[in-house]
Write a structure and sequence with these properties.
The protein is rod-shaped and about 140 Å long. The longest helix has 8 residues. It starts with a strand and ends with a strand. The protein has 1 helix and 16 strands. Strands 11-16-13 form a 3-stranded antiparallel β-sheet, with no helix packed on it.
Amino acid sequence: MTQNNATNTPIPVAVYHGGTGQDTAAEAFNALSPMTTLGDTVYGAASGAGTRLGGNTTTTLKFLSQTGNGSASAAPVWSVVSKTDVGLGAVENTALSSWAGTTNITTLGTIATGVWNGTAIGATFGGTGITTYAVGDTLYSSATNTLAKLSGNTTTTRKYLSQLGNGSVSAAPTWEEVEAGASVSQTEVDFGSTGVSEASFTITDAACTGTSKIILTLAGDAPTGKDADEIEMDSFFMKATPGSGSFDLYMRALEGDVADKFKVNYILGA
């Protein structure tokens, strides 16, 4: 802002009269600006008063930041961006090349590739807990939620897998010989015509005792009412529970429902 004197020469209006005291726009801006040093920034302080914020003179990269109180702003400052500022407060600052892992993983997606080199996976997590096997080994449950292995029969004597419970609880299987002179008997069971997946039968045999060991196999003979070429060889899980003069035979089909009759071979041992 200027005023003219008696000779009509423009004279800059002093600051205390509301001017800038300067002749050009750049000089006028600098005359009113509170900035004094390279990097200075002007911000509105209380009541909007122009205030100087000195530039960042450190060798650390900083950013102009500001945090209000919900209704009023605050003076800006130079600050380093933290991981919390960008929503990564829960991320640990550890290089992946040296990260040893964590015990806090509770959710895991599908692992499509890779080789498992950790400890053995227990039975309660879908594994077996067993890391070595030999030819002929058989897995069985030795206790609740526990798997064990029965070594294969390494003798030159033919043996059969046998098991004897106590009437309510099963026991570990073992390899047993069939007694000399034991003969193969045969019985016929009927699953009916509607089709079921499992059934139980009582097989009468005077030679059976409560401690008899029973070997079961599905016979290839044609059941009553069928010819040999009509036999359908289904797969079953079979279990015998011995009693005095009879044994209970439980059969469960492994491939869906079954119907009609089947013949079962069995051997009674002492």
